[in-house]
Specification:
With about 375 residues, this protein is α+β, with helices and mostly antiparallel strands. The protein is built from 10 helices and 15 strands. The strands form 2 sheets. It has an 8-stranded mixed β-sheet with strand order 1-4-5-6-7-8-9-10. A 7-stranded antiparallel β-sheet has the order 11-2-3-12-13-14-15, covered by helices on one side.
Length: about 375
């Protein structure tokens, strides 16, 4: 397998502890990477990181007890100070306002009326530093009541793009604004896991909107009920975008009219065009109500304006350590509760498909699909 799968079951503390034990070496590498970046990019001392980590532990306990329990268990299982694990999960907030090069991503959703199978489709390319690829994996969790989640996750963290057993999924896009600041609001990566812990769309909205925030971000949320919404959030304000002609796409700039200054629109590679590029690639199939997952994969492999397109490749002019590329590509069928994933670069790799229930079976292996250069039906 190109992408490891880690599956854990039990109470949230038990799942966190098992996750920590299974990924301890990866967590140590991730902690080392971000502690270095916190120091070099944000000027944070070890004492600063510990202080902020403990602050965000209190935030986690107030926001969602299941998330707090998983993170505390993860720290214990991995043999890491809990404040380091919490700092990892608040890395967006701790690095905000520095010259740190944030991730760029492209997300999209297709409503079921416009797809060949009548299913809700959700997808994302995650663009980030290549060094994080080897410490990223698929995480499957199933609690004692049978509620399950399948999500991409960096070691030491709990969520990114993923889906749950209620048929609800989320994709992530980094945003920055002049409202962002340090503080004790709910970190962006908590919001992503909070959405995946929701058993219906309305609860997902509350987990994102009805909380104090100190950073900006975008969450594209869709469900098997046939709806999708994009939530652009910043401290004290938010905007919502709905599909047009069955399609909804987002990248790394604000599209809603909000009272803020966008700090990424001018600097994030091709962000102003990537959402429309995806629409252009899918609009004919959508007009025929015939979008298939292989159409979505083809859009995610698009190289327009190489190397900064939807399928992003390292720019040879980037400074050492600041290279960015599509680290992972994820496509989801929310009705089927299936997720397919390709590691960097998705244009040259097949995807590996996992069913949510199959992910918990001993010795489970994924189906290989979407070979490069081919457009097979899934």
């Amino acid at each position: 397998m190109d992408t490891p799968l880690i599956a854990v079951e039990g109470t949230y503390e038990e799942m966190g502890a098992e996750l920590g034990r299974l990924t301890g070496d990866l967590v140590a590498r991730s902690v080392e990477t971000y502690l270095r970046r916190f120091r070099d990019k944000a000027g944070l001392s070890p004492a600063d990181v510990r202080r902020w980590g403990l602050t965000y532990l209190d935030v986690a306990r107030d926001y969602d007890e299941s998330i707090a329990a998983m993170l505390e268990g993860l720290a214990a299982g991995a043999g890491q100070p809990v404040e380091h694990i919490l700092a990892l999960n608040a890395r967006t907030e701790l690095l905000d306002g520095t010259d740190y090069h944030d991730e760029g991503c492209t997300s999209l959703a297709v409503l079921p009326k416009y797809t060949a199978e009548g299913h809700t489709l959700l997808a994302q390319n995650w663009d980030w530093h290549p060094e994080q690829g080897p410490v990223t994996f698929l995480l499957a969790t199933r609690d004692t009541e049978g509620f399950a989640v399948l999500t991409l996750a960096e070691a030491g963290m709990l969520a990114k793009s993923g889906l749950n057993s209620a048929g609800l999924g989320v994709c992530a896009n980094r945003l920055r604004s002049d409202r962002d600041s340090a503080g004790a609001g709910v970190p962006y990566h908590f919001l992503l896991r909070g959405v995946l812990q929701a058993d219906r769309m309305s609860r997902a909205h509350r987990k994102v909107l009805d909380v104090p925030r100190v950073s900006s971000g975008n969450l594209l949320i869709a469900d098997a009920g046939g709806e999708a919404i994009d939530l652009e959030v910043a401290p004290d304000v938010f905007g919502a975008l709905l599909p047009r002609d069955g399609l909804l796409a987002h990248s790394n700039h604000f599209q809603a009219a909000l009272p803020l200054v966008d700090r990424k629109a001018a600097s994030s590679g091709l962000t102003l065009l990537r959402p429309e590029r995806v629409r252009h690639l899918l609009e004919d199939a959508a007009a025929e109500r015939a979008v298939r997952l292989d159409d979505v994969v083809a859009a995610l492999r698009d190289h327009y304006s190489f190397p900064d397109g939807v399928c992003r490749h390292p720019d040879p002019e980037s400074a050492p350590g600041e290279e960015c590329c599509t680290v992972y590509s994820v496509v989801m069928d929310l009705d089927a509760r299936e997720l397919a994933i390709a590691a960097a670069s998705p244009c040259s790799r097949p995807y590996e498909r996992w069913g949510l229930e199959e992910a918990f079976k001993p010795d489970a292996v994924p189906d290989v699909c979407f070979e490069p250069g081919a457009r097979p039906a899934w």
